[in-house]
Amino acid sequence: MSSIPDTTATADASASPLLPAQRRQRIVDFLRVHGAVTIGQLEQALGASLSTLRRDLDTLAAEGVVDRTHGGALLRQQAPEYATFEPEPEAAAELSPREKAAIGQAAAEALLPRQSVIFDSGTTVLEAARAAVRRQIPLTAVTNDLVIAQVLGKSPLVQVHMLGGMLRPGSTTVIGQTLIDQAGALRADVLLMGAHAVTENVISETSAELAAVKRALMKAANSTRLLVDSSKFRPRAFMRIAALDEVGELVTDSGLSAAEEERLRALDLKLTVVKVQP
């Protein structure tokens, strides 16, 4: 009896030259760095089709290597400590680059000339800083991130104020009580804030120090614009920052699930969903 050719397998093979075992090892290596991943992030990183990657994750889950989540996976050995796990800054920059760029662009386009803006630390807020510089509008900027300060400082139209304090080990982020005290004297128009996780109505971070800084920055601004890509809608991290309805606007990407988007639109905040160019 002749067999029917598997056209799906053929198409997937052409999309990814790696053998299945090699591809799955790449996925495991990726998860060891990042801890958690979405299908879309794997597609960008590995270049394989979504159907292939779903089968790979299902296989790895059956082997007990990963735990499947909605739209992605967690490395199983990482799951018990996920609340405090965060990727290295260089690794974080590799996650959802197109989504972060689109969110940052939308956030920058909403800024008004001569506004005072607090730029929180994080890779998505960094994209907003880059986009704000490209707009060439005058701003008064405040930040607790060394790289973001350098990016903003490239524009002669942006007056940059750097908050002082203690440099977080292995990071470009400034934290600590000195920073919190300085933030108490500020009153900015808007805060562009990132976060590690959004879970139902809770915004959370991986450490108490980061969460304390973000709460202080929220108090220092008239309004908060939360910038998070769709992969950040995941299990809660270690320390609560605030309730989601305490922010004025949430900017995310179109990878958001329909159920999550419906839930968010029921909250008392402005929801901006940006489309990501392939």
TrEMBL record:
One Gene Ontology MF term: DNA binding
Keyword Secreted: no
Gene3D superfamilies per the UniProt record, alphabetical: 3.40.50.1360, Winged helix-like DNA-binding domain superfamily/Winged helix DNA-binding domain (1.10.10.10)
Pfam families, per database record: DeoRC, HTH_DeoR
Region forming the signal peptide: none
Keyword DNA-binding on entry: yes
Keywords for the protein's UniProt record, in alphabetical order: DNA-binding, Transcription, Transcription regulation
Residue ranges of domain HTH deoR-type in the record: 20-75
Protein name: DeoR/GlpR transcriptional regulator
Species of origin: Azohydromonas caseinilytica
